[in-house]
Amino acid sequence: MAGHSKxxxxxxxxxxxxxxxxxxxxxxxxxxxxxxxxxxxDPAGNFQLRTAxxxxxAAGLPNENIERAIAKGGGTLxxxxxxxxAIRYEGYGPGGVAILIEALxxxxxxxxxxxxxxxxxxxxxxxxxxxxxxxxxxxxxxTVERIVDEEQLLEASLEGSAxxxxxxxxxxAEVFTEVVNLENLSQTxxxxxxxxxxxxxxxxxxxxxxxxxxxxxxxxxxxxxxxESLEDVQNVTANFDMSEELMAVMx
Length: 251
Description:
The protein is an alpha+beta fold. It has nine helices and ten strands. The protein has helices at residues 6-18, 25-37, 47-58, 63-74, 108-121, 150-159, 182-191, 214-228, 244-250, and strands spanning 85-92, 98-105, 125-126, 136-145, 164-169, 172-177, 195-205, 209-210, 233-238, 240-241. Residues 85-240 form the TACO1/YebC-like second and third domain. It comes from Brasilonema sennae CENA114.
């Protein structure tokens, strides 16, 4: 089952190349608002909210911003959070690379227009719903550290109803499961003494496009940068492979 972590690896490499934060405070606040709106306001009883708060804190979002976002999502603070909706957009990048964009927006028309401009300026096209999503499947993924015995990881993963895992670095692995089982898997791994540094939903492509030409790579990374910089965009996923050497050239 190797290869499912390739986009995550590219994102990590790209972050080094870009040397910038992946999300703004506004984006993290919106994620917390939506999570608080979709369930209980107590993070202990709302896995989506708890995860959003943990990631927001890691990104440096102040506690007062977090508390305000929870209050907005719970309806105890005035604001327009009720109009926020989650939308998935789809399109093609240079060389036919498939791209999925997850957004939280209070204005569909504005978001679609901003995305269309970003695509057109960077050799891509914003497509219709369903044009590329069939190439991807969504999974729950736990990033696990402090692995000294793979047999123990295997046992814990099976107990947590995981589908498979991949070692990505020494003592670090990504454990994959069905979307609805992510919280159970995360809790099981923690109970078994593993350090779970991230738990997220990730789109995984069935087939990847190999990018080897520097010009194409440059245009593609610029497009993804443009998409990720949009305030309404929460996450961008693409089905391409790129060598570390080419990434270094792009730097």
